[in-house]
# Entry
Amino acid sequence: MRVLAAMSGGVDSAVAAALAVDAGHDVTGVHLALSQNRQTLRSGSRGCCSVEDSHDARRVADELGIPFYVWDLADRFTEDVVDDFVAEYAAGRTPNPCLRCNEKIKFTAVLDRALGLGFDAVVTGHHARLDGTELRRSVDAAKDQSYVLGVLTPEQLAAAMFPLGGMTKDRVREIAAERGFGVAAKPDSHDICFIPDGDTRGFLSRRLGSQPGPVVDAATGRQVGEHDGTYGFTVGQRRGLGIAAGDQRPRYVLGIEPVTRTVTVGTADLAGVPAVRTGAPTWTGRAPQLPFAAQVQVRAHGAPVACRVRPDDGGGLLVEFADQQRGVAPGQSAVFYEPDPDRGDRVLGQAAVTAAVEREAGVRR
# Structure
């Protein structure tokens, strides 16, 4: 097959490209230039898409003897991922930019272009498995990325290759070292790639400006603090609240209201929710018949929990948790997995959380 290897400059995509070559495919490497300031140097494990990353990807391609190109998708990335990220926070939601990048950039813009150029598939260094066209978790649970791939469609999965899903990250580094790749010991990227200093609140403040408002205690209705912008908070947050609640019990963000600029906080006993509502779902395979039982994961690094999924108004879903969950924020994706223990690593699909079902009257979430 003619295969396009997306090469970020990291060890995972380097080994994925190498394995595609070993499998006998006709491989071409491509590095995605996503940053509008690519000359900014990478700092350890923070950031990506720097000029260093491009050079690292090119060196690996040269060692593999495959053609290599750089595709400038910075404007598309800014519009579909960065601007969306800012808009979601401004609206009081908590987006996942990695999921959005996979949806809009790597498996829409890139895959569409690859297929248009006559390639049969795109290979990436994601830690996830494909069983035919069924998406499954990686064997390395600590590195599993199936959550951020849960937005992919059956057509996209049919043209994707994830050769690392059956091995651990340690094995990936071993393969890179055996081949003499200079990226074998390169640190993994962490945090949000377009915020290399890790200061999300500062990034949003520079984009949105100061928007002061009150922090209110849910139990008493009393103002217990002030903030410079609701975009600096996410539901479930405990640290950095800057409040004086009057006792030593920890407070959590329970709700965010950007119109009135109000952040509502409360104690742990108020933080759990029994269910959430979502927008319209997307499915990685045939749509399951509603209602159905599943496991659901609501954060990229969260633990799955048993749930019951029912139809809701407007084409969305009502997701009822077996156990109350904390920190489920609007904007996050609820990714559904098969409930059968023997197939519980299979991804069914996802839907964006729109609201938590109220447990306590008067608490807006």
